[in-house]
Amino acid sequence: MAAVVAKRIASPLFDPDLFWHLATGRWIVEHRAFLRSDVFSFSTFSAPWQNSEWIFQVLVFFMESLGGWAAIFYFKMALALGSLALLGGTLSRLLGAEKRWFLPLVWVGYAILQLRLFERAELFTWICWGGLWMWILNVRCCPNKPWTLFWVVPLFTFWVNCHPGVVYGVGFIFLLSLGARWGREPKEFIRRLDQALGLALCCLLLNPHGWRMVWFYLEVMTQLKTNIGIIAEWKPPTLTDAPYFWVVLVGVGYLSVAAVREKTASWRWLVPGAFVFIVYGSQHLRSTALAAWTGLALIAFALREVRVFAPVRFWGPVALTVVMAATTAYPLFKSPLKTKMVAWSRLPQGAVDFMRRHHFQGRGYNEYGFGGYIQWVLGPELKTFLDGRYLSFPLAEEETQMLVQMASDQDAQAWTRRSDRWGFQFAVTGYMSDFWDLWEKKSGHPDSLFFDRFYPPHEWALVYWDDVALVFCRRTEPFQPAIKENEFVVLKPYLLINGSIHAQDQARAAQEIARHRREVPFSLLRSQIEGSLFSSKNKKWGTSQEGS
Q1: Rounded Cα–Cα distance for residues 336 and 334 (Å)
Q2: Is there a contact between 441 and 504 (Cβ–Cβ < 8 Å)?
Q3: 416 pLDDT exceeds 90?
Q4: N or C: which end of the chain has fewer CB within 10 A?
Q5: pTM for the whole thing?
């Protein structure tokens, strides 16, 4: 199981938010100050920014500076494996003598957590969850030792400066306090929980922004509720997305009902916390990971009192382990081991390098997932339009509404007005935009019309493309040199991938292919285009009149 887990966690760095974290960490180190307002985007420039993840940002910046991407890669693996180790230790202590259930429960916990075990500040939340559980179990075992409270302050002070998930920890202590009263736990244990809750609330203020951080937590939760359709990970989980979460949900539901009916149930002190967080997790895909620390913990503790037939008691854990290994381990082992540290195929590396060589300046549109990388490479001098920070949520919501209007032909000029309002002079966009599915669903038009509608050739010029991103320039004076030297008039990938060109454009297409080969030596997309345009029978370019 350890080999399966390690292979899954050893996936290349791919999260686009990592790069604006790196850019922020660099700014903090260079200026030796906390970043309290936005300096990276022209759309939200100087807006107040309650940056709650500065410890993570400084750490990853130092690691990249000292050890490159390999240092961040192994740092991610260490935190992820550490989180699973703490989860395993928590479940082991909760199971007590029922250790036969340890392996299947840990496997379920891994299957739930794996969706969130990548290079984000969120990894610190899982480490802190494990630390919180160790403290809770120690206090429950020995509630008469007041010195245990001293661990609460450093834990929550660190947590509040690493990730907003600290609010989960505070809420969990509160719910445990309620559950302990319901389950008639020892008074000393209840008092320790109440004291820990008070200390944790005070620790929320121990951050560079003070009380504004608390307001920030409430604001973000409101934004995520209203913008749930913008970010995929905040959509409700399905049975396909998170199957083991729904297994735990059923278990928590059954135990919650049983705890109400059985007045002597020893697990009642865990029911409120598990029930609330499992319901919350059912609302958002990214929040399903909370079930591993709350719902699974309830199931582990309740197994102490489960009475089943002896054969089931022995063979049940074995059968569960075999089934989970067959459904999870085999497909993972069958897939090849990733050897790269960074998934460059998801990042606009070539496009940003092109922009740097040609000294792009001014305001430009960038796709949601590209903003962080542009900030890391070209920022803060070159400002982006939007990125993965909560400051960009209103812009992303506006973009979604605009796309719906354009796709349904309610407002064909929506993008033009938005472009003029923000003064876009160039644009960096990808092929697999988050909005393409919505565009095709609403309009029924192919992807090529998506680009034609947004970047009409008489106003915009395509000056760069590779397998990840495209760069368009507006036909204005500052960009005329770049357009004259680099414009693709014929070789537009979104038009030619399944089409052909006019006979009179063959010579120009050959020149543009040669130029593209020099600039982008390896391109699967170009190979597909050449295969589509070049006839295998007569070795001549297609002469269909349907082309661009």
Answers
A1: 7
A2: no
A3: no
A4: N
A5: 0.91
